[in-house]
Specification:
alpha+beta, 2 domains, single chain, Transferase(Phosphotransferase), domain 1, three-stranded antiparallel beta sheet, 32% helix
């Protein structure tokens, strides 16, 4: 049963219900001691006495307390009042990424900063030994300033030595009495294949979910979605996303990143969110300014290079043919010839001959014995 406005939980006064999630009800409340508004997450009364849920609730508080990042919702404390356990968290004004997507797909200029900041938030959590395990658009708030905040580490499980003492009930697949079918945690459309199979998880499951979010922001539709939960899980396990749905001007680096994030075999997937963040940055830098400013701008940018290339080719072809040079004009040369005594004036063609190069003049004497 929802708490009514005005209800007091210790020093907190309930103002209104914000929403209901898998981990409980979330309220806007006023901290009467410090004079600020906060978000309070309360376990439903129906499960308040469930030791399993309480353990998960308490674990969420411990994990969130170890995180300190501008893109992760801040935890102020874990408290109890009248047998009600609740988290006191940062109140974030804005809308969920799910609501933002309902308004239409995001432009590249809007999407890239979100990708980068979400990756940095999850990377920071992984460095503290925290795997989110339920990363999805509804768990990401976009502030009025356009800044993403990752919410709800309620399904997170630590994998470092500091958090390795958790009970079996904190594993990704919950069983009752060890005989019933495992209860798979997380939202189906964003679950990794190993999570859908109920296997042990590590930080690579968040990398898969991150890839699903990036794909959805670029295309406006989920990477894996069926009419039922079973159909969705079947798509995750057996089918590839519709890669043709990506916008035509999606940078090649982004396409490669998505394929590496959404490898069904975790061993072939990116192993670290830092790698995803670096590849994301490289993809953006390598494609600017062409792809990020649209196809028209890219054509204008390439045109001078195309013209220059064609000119270079024509110049090379011209160099294959020898140039024809105009014949050099030689000046008029005059010469005199002194004949031996007794010889008559020679006649050209019979007694005189000029060498082909014009350098020699030959005189033939009438008796043919002298030259």
């Amino acid at each position: 049963m929802a708490l009514e406005p005005g209800t007091k939980l210790g020093t907190y006064e309930i103002l209104s219900l914000i929403g209901v999630g898998g981990m409980g009800e979330v309220y806007r409340a006023r901290d009467t001691k410090l004079g600020r508004e906060v978000a309070i997450k309360v376990l439903p009364a129906a499960v308040a006495k469930d030791s399993e849920r309480i353990a998960r609730f308490q674990r969420e508080a411990r994990l969130l307390a170890s995180l300190n990042h501008p893109n992760i919702a801040t935890l102020h404390g874990l408290e109890e009042s009248d047998d009600i356990h609740f988290l006191v968290m940062e109140l974030i004004e804005g809308q969920t990424l799910t609501a933002r997507l309902a308004d239409g797909t995001l432009s590249f200029e809007e999407a890239f900063p979100l990708f980068q900041q979400i990756a940095e938030a999850v990377e920071s959590a992984h460095e503290k030994g925290v795997v989110h395990r339920d990363l999805k658009p509804s768990n990401i708030m976009i502030t009025k300033e356009g800044k993403p905040k990752v919410l709800d580490f309620g399904l997170a499980k630590a994998f470092g030595p500091r958090f390795s003492e958790g009970a079996t009930s904190e594993s990704p697949t919950l069983t009752r009495a060890g005989t019933e079918t495992g209860v798979i945690l997380g939202t189906a459309a964003y679950m990794s294949p190993e999570q859908a199979r109920g296997r042990d998880l590590d930080k690579r499951t968040d990398i898969w979910s991150f890839g699903c979010i990036v794909y959805e922001l670029l295309t406006g539709k989920a990477a894996f979605l069926g009419d039922t939960v079973s159909d969705t899980i079947a798509a995750i396990l057996e089918r590839e996303p519709d890669w043709q749905a990506l916008p035509q001007r999606t940078p090649e680096g982004m396409r490669v990143l998505l394929r590496r994030c959404l490898q069904k075999n975790a061993r072939h997937r990116l192993h670290d969110m830092a790698d995803a963040r670096i590849e994301l940055e490289d993809a953006r830098q390598s494609e600017e300014p062409g792809d990020l400013r649209g196809p028209g701008h890219r054509q204008k940018t390439l045109l001078p290079w195309i013209v220059a290339g064609m000119m270079a080719i024509l110049a090379g072809i011209a160099g294959l043919y020898p140039r024809r040079t105009a014949p050099t004009s030689k000046g008029l040369v005059r010469a005199s010839l002194s004949l031996p005594a007794g010889h008559a004036q020679p006649r050209r063609g019979r007694t005189l001959a000029l060498s082909p190069d014009g350098n020699l003049l030959v005189y033939r004497a009438p008796d043919a014995r002298q030259l």
